[in-house]
Task: inverse folding
């Protein structure tokens, strides 16, 4: 190692001897000096003020000491009031002895009354001269002494004891202070923390008090920031979330360019005659010589980056009181980002031996990567907006439902998906949903259905409309003949509907308020009336023919669903918590560790059995349930999968699939043999109940890109993947029986064959802040039985830019070493 | 002989020549599709014994640098065999035993003599402790002791060469390859360099010298090889190069002759040279003649002197003509050009 360490050491020497290094360090110093005067002062109220001041309470922040005293006296000996007991015990004995007397006679009211009386007296005093009564004065003095005693408690660093506050939720600000470490808090912060504790124990009589932030640049106060940020916590959160972004965009862009320019000559310099020959004559490996030079170049930049980032971290900590580890994490990350582009600069230097060519080609490459990333993200958003979100097996074909709620069937003549379900969304609805798809559809109501009722060949579903975007609106039901595929508005769904299911051929709507069954006869009658009234096929308002429907003409909402139980409402928080068995019509509901089964009788659905699942984690863990055949499958938020025998109500098996992604949907085949679990990372896992020793990642096309699955029969699984491809897989034989794959338009082809491959292998400038943010935000608890994967923020793999960058750098270094090793010099 | 020792390469290392090449060839290729080929070395074979000072000569483009680069592993050969201290040429094991001073040595300007020795010593796997022990002695040897802490950017070309020589010797190599070592040195420094080379040779270190300065080579080297356009033209002792040149057909006009200036009657002078091949070079004065006479050896010269004395001819000056290395080099190169 000695020869190679000598090369790295020489790079350090060269860096130290270089004027460029000192210029850079000087510029960074100027920057740090420029930002250093900017600082923030937090004013956090901690002291309790109470003084009788007449009708105007002035600076008082305690309204009624009598009520506080009342709570302390009456509750200090209760077992569940440990904080009260703690405060009581810290009061001086003299104060303790006087407090019971103050409680007698309902001191609070008395104070109010007498306070008013006193106020009157004081007002009159100006005219009459007499002061408050001796009794009032004595009590006010005792109140004042009591408040002073509370302030002494606030100033006591030993006030907080963990056992006193266990199971008592503390304000976020207090928790934030605890995370910093109580021992390291300044006296002011310590008092503030105690004030928050006191307010927790004695709320609402003792408030948390106000905090204020004052921003200064030197002695000049920056009022505009003081108005924006009222609490240090909000300011800190904003700062820690935006700093990595701007560091990525500016420092890792502009700084990177500077770094590339100043290091561009390192490799070409090695090739100067008289220098290279001497190096190559030494008993060292050439590839290691190259790598040592490369590492040496990185060391040069490490000095500057370390100085800049450490300086900013120190300034943020000392001046702004924001100790953000993301800044420190940026140091190795920035060095790595530099190394990625330096690997390009180095290989160009190796080939052309010219610093100028190195700089130009590296910058062009950076711009290329940036452009590829930009175009890829645009195209990816577009692909998401046209992707298949649901697959609905029809009688003899399959319908795909797009994100924009299009319903398409396969057109074999030109091998494309042809939108058939009418009417399509209005342009403004499409635009709204497209934008929503790009930035998250949390604000949009989840689509219900579409569901095919094979008995009537009807499709039932919902359809986005602008008015449904307003909260609390009932969802309209749309019905279409599965052959003609023209939606008709047919009344409304039950309130809070989460899913539609088939139960022994009947259509059920599940909502948080109960189970509802579709009155098929009434619906059919309505549709017939519609058809007869219009003299043509019924259609939707807003559709091409603009014909009004019977529902609209009736003037009031109408629903074809009847409540069929249960008598006691069950907590169905989302559609994942309930499942309807297609064959026997029974309903299984999961709620906080208990699976309850409901069976239909003449009175409707009645609870008839339940099973408490043996959980090693919180019963509030999210769960997705599926009940088909005689098997109930529970997929918990922490990844655990449990199967239950529905007949005997006993647990069968537990599985832990090797995925760190939460489950998106669970589908069971009608006979209950197969269960398909589609995870958020778009991987599909299959459990075969006939061979259920373990569940496996399915050997199907498009793993990692699967957007939806649906059973089309007992062993027929339709799989939608790669945006718009649908494959029918026979699970028994494992064969792909049918594949519907459109060639796609030129945008899709460009995305799939050009942008995506390039994006995958190229470095990703401007995206590394995601990793810094991810590392700053996570506390390492991304795994474990109590971690609900659904609570994790859904984001693209934050390590992706790092992994692809390292991979790219490794390839560059490999080829550079190969060239250097084999070439004659 | 114990075969185990051979297997381990120990005896091979001890007994093998310092440099041994057989039919060594190198062809450069350029271009990916329409490749141009240039033969830089063609079937070169010679041997350098351990402990000797050997010179490699040749005009520009003769293949000297290519030869050195192959030996040091900087480029690869395309044919033949080459070994250095018993190891294949270019191998790391071989390079460990070699100290190399390149032509146009460039030492990074931020270094001083100490840091340069530390860096290059480390590259030869010499620890810093050993470097610190040796550096003052070596800098004293090459005359840089008083400039040890100056930055190399302040060094003259000659000082850089001397520092280069110091780094060459740092790891006590058994073979020292010097590429134009006296280039840029003043006459005094050249003499010092020659002195250092002789001292190294006295210690048993093999010196392989590549130089354009034929006079320097003639003073230092016992044996030389002459390359011309990739071909080996001569390999042998410097002393024998005259005979070699004589052996070249029709090229011996200045070989085995004496230049004599005589004073006497023209007829007497003419009579004295009768029966000998001679040529009057000039007539500096009346009855004074400068003549070149073939004289194979000292006996022939003595007979000529007797004949001159017998005819009352006075000998003013007599100089025996010898074939210098430079003459021989020029003859050899001229001969090869004529042949091609």
Result:
């Amino acid at each position: 190692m000695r020869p190679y360490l000598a090369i790295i050491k020489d790079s350090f020497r060269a860096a130290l001897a270089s004027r460029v290094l000192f210029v850079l360090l000087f510029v960074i110093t100027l920057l740090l000096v420029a930002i250093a005067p900017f600082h923030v002062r937090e004013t956090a109220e901690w002291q309790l003020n109470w003084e009788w001041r007449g009708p105007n309470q002035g600076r008082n922040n305690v309204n009624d000491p009598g009520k506080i005293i009342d709570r302390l006296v009456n509750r200090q000996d209760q077992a569940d009031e440990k904080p009260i007991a703690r405060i009581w015990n810290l009061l001086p004995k003299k104060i303790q002895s006087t407090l019971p007397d103050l409680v007698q006679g309902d001191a609070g009211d008395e104070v109010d009354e007498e306070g008013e009386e006193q106020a009157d007296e004081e007002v009159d005093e100006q005219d009459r001269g007499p002061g408050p009564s001796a009794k009032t004065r004595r009590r006010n003095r005792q109140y004042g002494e009591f408040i002073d005693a509370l302030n002494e408690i606030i100033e006591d660093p030993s006030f907080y004891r963990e056992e006193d506050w266990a199971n008592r939720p503390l304000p976020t600000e207090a928790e934030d202070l605890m995370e910093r470490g109580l021992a390291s808090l300044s006296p002011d912060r310590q008092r503030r923390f105690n004030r928050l504790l006191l307010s927790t124990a004695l709320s609402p009589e003792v408030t948390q008090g106000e905090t204020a932030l004052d921003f200064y640049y030197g002695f000049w106060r920056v009022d505009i920031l003081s108005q924006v940020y009222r609490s240090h916590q909000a300011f800190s959160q904003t700062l820690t979330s935006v700093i990595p972004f701007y560091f990525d965009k500016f420092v890792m862009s502009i700084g990177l360019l500077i770094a590339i320019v100043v290091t561009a000559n390192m490799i070409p310099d090695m090739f100067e005659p008289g220098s290279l020959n001497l190096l190559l004559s030494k008993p060292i490996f050439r590839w290691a010589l190259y790598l040592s030079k490369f590492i040496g170049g990185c060391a040069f930049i490490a000095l500057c980056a370390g100085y800049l980032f450490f300086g900013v971290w120190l300034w943020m900590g000392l001046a702004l009181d924001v100790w953000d580890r993301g800044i420190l994490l940026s140091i190795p990350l920035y060095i790595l980002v530099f190394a990625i582009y330096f690997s390009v600069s180095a290989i160009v230097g190796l080939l052309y031996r010219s610093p100028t060519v190195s700089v130009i080609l590296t910058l062009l490459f950076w711009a290329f990567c940036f452009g590829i990333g930009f175009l890829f993200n645009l195209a990816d958003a577009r692909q998401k907006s046209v992707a298949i979100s649901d697959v609905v097996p029809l009688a003899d074909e399959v319908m795909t439902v797009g994100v924009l709620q299009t319903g398409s069937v396969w057109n074999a003549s030109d091998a494309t998906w042809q939108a058939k379900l009418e009417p399509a969304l209005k342009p403004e609805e499409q635009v709204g949903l497209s934008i929503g798809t790009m930035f998250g559809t949390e604000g949009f109501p989840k689509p219900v259905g579409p569901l095919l009722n094979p008995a009537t060949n009807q499709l039932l579903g919902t359809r986005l409309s602008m008015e449904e975007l307003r909260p609390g609106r009932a969802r309209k039901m749309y019905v279409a003949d599965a052959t003609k595929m023209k939606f008709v508005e047919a009344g409304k769904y039950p309130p809070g509907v989460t899913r539609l299911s088939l139960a022994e051929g009947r259509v059920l709507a599940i909502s948080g308020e109960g189970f509802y069954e579709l009155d098929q006869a009434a619906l059919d009658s309505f549709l017939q009336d519609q058809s007869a009234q219009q003299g043509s096929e019924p259609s939707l308002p807003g559709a091409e023919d603009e014909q009004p429907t019977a529902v609209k003409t009736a003037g009031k909402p109408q629903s074809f669903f009847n409540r069929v139980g249960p008598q006691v409402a069950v907590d169905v928080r989302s559609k994942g918590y309930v499942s309807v068995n297609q064959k026997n019509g029974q309903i299984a509901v999961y709620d906080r560790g208990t699976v309850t089964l409901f069976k239909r009788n003449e009175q409707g659905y009645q609870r008839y059995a339940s099973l408490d699942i043996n959980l090693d984690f919180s019963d509030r863990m999210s769960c997705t349930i599926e009940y088909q055949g005689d098997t109930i499958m529970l997929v918990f938020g922490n990844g655990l999968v449990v199967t239950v025998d529905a007949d005997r109500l006993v647990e069968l098996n537990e599985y832990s699939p090797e995925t760190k992604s939460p489950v998106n949907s669970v589908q069971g085949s009608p006979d209950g043999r197969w269960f398909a679990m589609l995870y958020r990372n778009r991987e599909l896992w299959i459990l075969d109940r006939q061979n259920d020793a373990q569940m496996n990642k399915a050997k199907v096309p498009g793993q990692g890109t699967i957007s939806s699955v649906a059973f089309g029969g007992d062993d027929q699984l339709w799989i939608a993947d790669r945006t718009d491809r649908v494959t029918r897989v026979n699970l028994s034989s494992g064969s792909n029986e049918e594949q519907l794959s459109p060639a796609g338009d030129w945008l899709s082809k460009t995305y799939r064959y050009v942008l995506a491959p390039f994006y995958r292998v190229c470095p990703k400038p401007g995206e590394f802040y995601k990793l810094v943010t991810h590392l700053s935000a996570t506390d390492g608890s991304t795994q474990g039985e109590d971690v609900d994967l659904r609570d994790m923020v859904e984001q693209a793999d934050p390590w992706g830019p790092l992994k692809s960058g390292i991979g790219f750098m490794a390839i560059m270094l490999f080829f550079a070493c190969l060239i250097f090793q084999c070439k004659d010099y | 002989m114990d075969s185990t020792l051979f297997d381990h390469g120990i005896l091979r290392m001890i007994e093998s020549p310092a440099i041994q090449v057989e039919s060594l060839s190198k062809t450069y290729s350029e271009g990916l599709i329409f490749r141009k080929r240039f033969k830089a070395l063609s079937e070169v074979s010679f041997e350098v014994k351990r402990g000797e000072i050997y010179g490699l000569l040749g005009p520009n483009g003769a293949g000297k640098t290519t030869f050195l680069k192959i030996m040091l592993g900087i480029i690869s050969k395309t044919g033949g065999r080459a070994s250095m201290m018993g190891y294949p040429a270019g191998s790391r094991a071989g390079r460990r035993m070699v100290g190399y001073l390149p032509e146009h040595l460039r030492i990074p300007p931020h270094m001083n003599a100490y840091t340069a020795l530390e860096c290059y010593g480390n590259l030869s796997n010499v620890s810093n402790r050993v470097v610190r022990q040796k550096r003052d002695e070596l800098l004293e040897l090459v005359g840089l002791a008083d400039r040890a802490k100056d930055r190399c950017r302040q060094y003259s070309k000659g000082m850089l060469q001397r520092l280069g020589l110091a780094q060459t010797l740092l790891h006590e190599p058994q073979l020292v390859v010097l590429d134009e070592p006296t280039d840029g040195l003043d006459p005094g420094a050249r003499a010092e360099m020659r002195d250092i080379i002789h001292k190294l040779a006295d210690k048993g270190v093999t010196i392989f010298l590549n130089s354009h300065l034929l006079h320097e080579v003639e003073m230092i080297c016992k044996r030389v090889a002459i390359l011309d356009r990739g071909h080996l033209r001569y390999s042998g002792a410097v002393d024998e190069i005259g005979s070699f040149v004589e052996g070249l057909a029709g090229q011996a006009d200045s070989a085995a002759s004496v230049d004599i200036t005589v004073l006497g009657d023209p007829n007497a002078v003419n009579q004295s040279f009768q029966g000998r091949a001679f040529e009057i070079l000039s007539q500096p004065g009346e009855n004074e003649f400068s003549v070149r006479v073939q004289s194979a050896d000292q006996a022939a010269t003595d007979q000529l002197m007797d004949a001159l004395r017998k005819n009352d001819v006075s000998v003013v000056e007599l100089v025996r003509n010898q074939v210098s290395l430079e003459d021989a080099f020029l003859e050899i190169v001229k001969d090869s050009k004529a042949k091609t």
In short: The interface with chain A takes residues 28, 69, 72-76, 92-93, 95-96, 98, 100, 102-108, 110-111, 115, 118-120, 122-125, 127, 164, 177 of chain B (CB under 8 Å). The first strand of chain B starts at residue 19 and ends at 30. Residues 245 and 328 of chain B are 6 Å apart (CA to CA).
